[in-house]
Design goal:
Blueprint (H helix, E strand, L loop, with lengths): L7 E3 L6 H4 L3 H4 L17 E6 L3 E6 L8 E5 L3 E3 L6 H8 L4 H7 L16 E3 L4 H15 L5 H8 L1 E3 L2 E4 L7 E2 L5 E6 L4 E6 L10 E2 L8 H9 L20 H20 L6 H5 L4 H14 L5 H16 L3 H19 L6 H19 L1
Parallel strand pairs: 9-12
Antiparallel strand pairs: 1-6, 2-3, 4-11, 5-8, 7-8, 10-11
Helix pairs in contact: 5-6, 8-10, 10-11, 11-12, 11-13, 12-13
The structure holds S-adenosylmethionine (SAM).
Length: about 350
């Protein structure tokens, strides 16, 4: 294996499976000319071309927070998150010619400038991980669309697998999104919910990265998709401390501080958390920050659930019921009442409510 003097491996000297694939006919080919459309009968959105973004999805009417805007069946499933080209090729063999055409009509972030990317990988990175990094790099800088370039531009987590969804894939990114996507294993469908009230004409967006991370980390993750984000959380703050960008950066910084401070006491050690001074206030502040940031997601639902459980331990029934009710509401609105675990949220609310009634009698 060629290795630089500094112990780094040159990525481009290691070309392999992109060119030696046994299934080259599907590995690389021109982009399809299919025009994307919202699913037939979907009343919520239409697809339009946007300068510099390809296509995007736009609300046809006012959409209330909690609305399920879309359910989508996977088009191509790769049953491992650390996929290689050979895994995508294997999955692509199961596609009909029409499905393959649809796959190749999706967005592809190939054609990127190689000088904007590190050209070397540390020598300690070996085997499958090295091959994966190399394949993805080659797909990114290649002048043509490929199975890998489309997969890495569009794939979403599907439990322990990764999959491409033909309709959900048309939704563009924002670090301050108005939609949430979740794999619903019970329905075997990807679901997209509005996490804000969306006015008619607005673009539907969700976050491709962990939106609570700070701007430079988000920018690095988004670079893999070949764009830099200009959403209101990423826009410059113009030196104005009142601007959304400035306040958002401060909120996300504080969210990280609070996450670090509370992480060890959440989950199995919640009982200890309940006895730790300041823990409840930290969780309350965290919930407030997520709300202000518009992160009306499962993260917020879990914070409320933990608050409810801490209140239950402390026999604080009034706040317990309120927090459990918030947890159920956020969970339902961002993932749906038919989502896995929803019953668990409702059970906590019911239990604390009954205990509060018993305590009053
Ligand atoms: C999953 S696709 C989204 C749909 C895509 N626009 C299309 O035409 O099918 C991801 C690609 O869309 C574009 N994109 C998504 N969000 C964007 C944003 N906020 N700004 C610029 N381009 C964006 C990038 O080209 C990215 O690689």
């Amino acid at each position: 294996m060629p290795c630089g003097l500094d112990g780094a491996i040159d990525m481009l000297s290691l070309k392999n499976s992109q060119t030696s694939s046994p299934n080259n006919s599907t590995t690389s080919r021109p982009t399809s000319k299919l025009t994307p459309k919202a699913p037939e009968g979907n009343p919520y959105y239409e697809i339009r071309a946007i300068p510099d973004k390809g296509y995007g999805c736009f609300a046809l009417k006012d959409i209330k927070r909690g609305t399920r805007i879309l359910t989508d069946k996977p088009l191509l499933i790769v049953p491992k998150p650390d996929y290689l080209l050979e895994d995508i090729e294997e999955a692509a063999k199961k596609l009909s010619p029409e499905e393959l055409e649809l796959y190749f009509s999706l967005s592809s972030s190939h054609g990127q400038d190689p000088t904007k990317w590190p050209s070397r990988v540390h020598a300690s990175v070996q085997g499958r991980e090295l091959q994966r990094i190399r394949e993805q790099h080659l797909a990114r800088i290649s002048p043509t669309t490929s199975l890998t370039s489309i997969f890495q531009t569009n794939c979403m987590e599907m439990g322990l697998s990764a999959a491409v969804f033909p309709h959900a894939s048309r939704i563009n990114h924002s670090c301050n999104p108005n939609c949430n996507f979740t794999w619903n294993a019970l329905l075997a469908l990807e679901t997209v919910h509005a996490i804000a009230d969306i006015p008619a004409g607005a673009e539907l967006t969700f976050s491709y990265c962990d939106m609570t991370k700070e701007k430079t980390l988000r920018a690095w993750e988004l670079k893999h998709y070949g764009f830099s984000c200009d959403c209101r959380a990423c826009a410059g703050d113009g030196g104005d401390p009142e601007s959304f960008a400035h306040q958002s950066a401060e909120r996300r910084f504080r969210i990280h501080e609070l996450d670090r401070a509370t992480k060890v006491l959440r989950g199995a050690r919640l009982g200890e958390g309940a006895r730790t001074p300041g823990f409840v206030n930290q969780l309350l502040e965290l919930a407030q920050l997520h709300r202000e940031e518009g992160d009306y997601s499962i993260r917020l639902a879990r914070i409320y659930l933990d608050l409810a459980l801490v209140c239950e331990i402390a026999s604080d029934w009034k706040n317990g019921v309120e927090c459990a009710a918030n947890a159920v509401k956020v969970k339902r609105e961002c993932q749906g009442a038919d989502s896995p675990d929803y019953d668990k949220y409702e059970d906590v609310l019911r239990r604390i409510y009954l205990k509060s009634k018993a305590a009053m009698s």
